Amino acid sequence: MINFPGAAGTFNLRVAAVAVERDRVLLNRAEGEGIWYLPGGRVELMEASREAVKRELREELGVDVRVGRLLWVVENFFVLDGTPIHEVGLYYRVRVPNAVTRSEGIHLRDELGRQLESHWFDNADLASLPPAPRSCAHVLLPCPRTGLIVDREQQWRRVPDPP
Which of 2, 31, 118, 138 is in Cβ range 3.0-4.6 Å of 114 for a Cys bridge? Predict the structure, then answer.
């Protein structure tokens, strides 16, 4: 995966999927984390970003998606577990299979030993959630034109599981 630790922090190259269906957007949350984020993950070295989106969604949802156009390039600066992170994210519009879009509930899937929770949220729900990066919250619905987003204020932290 493209992840370079350095003296000042860590650099990541990330891909993310913007799945919007029937005025809802698909968000993920990993076990032990308190934030919802767009599905996706890090790009492998020599892997095309579109292929990385397909791979990540296959891992996270167990389905094959159709990758559309690139919507945003997000330069995100945040702190995770005390480490400064400089992340460049490529956010693609995706179409997920009908079985997933018809679902109303939460999807749970084991990924690398942790439960990954996926859920559809409607536009009204987004205002009460802390999606990451925060700068994407106001532009998720309706799906916007392509653009560049820079987010320097995000301070992520892992939230422990409830007892």
Answer: 31
The span from the CA of 39 to the CA of 18, in Å, is 8
According to DSSP H, which parts of 92-138 are helical? 98-101, 123-126
Residue 131: what pLDDT?
Answer: 55
pLDDT greater at residue 31 or residue 160: 31
Strand partners, 115: 110
Return d(Cα 17, Cα 35) in angstroms, integer.
16
In terms of CATH architecture, what is 3-140?
Alpha-Beta Complex (3.90)
CA dihedral 126, 85, 113, 24 (to 10 degrees): 20
Closest residue by Cα to residue 78 from 150, 2, 129: 150
Distance CA 53, CA 65 (A): 9
How does pLDDT run across 41-79, given as a tens digit for each residue?
999 999 999 999 999 999 888 889 999 999 888 888 888
In sequence order, what are the beta bridge partners of 86? 11, 77
| Nearest residue to 92 (alpha-carbon basis) of 9, 155, 14, 150 | 14
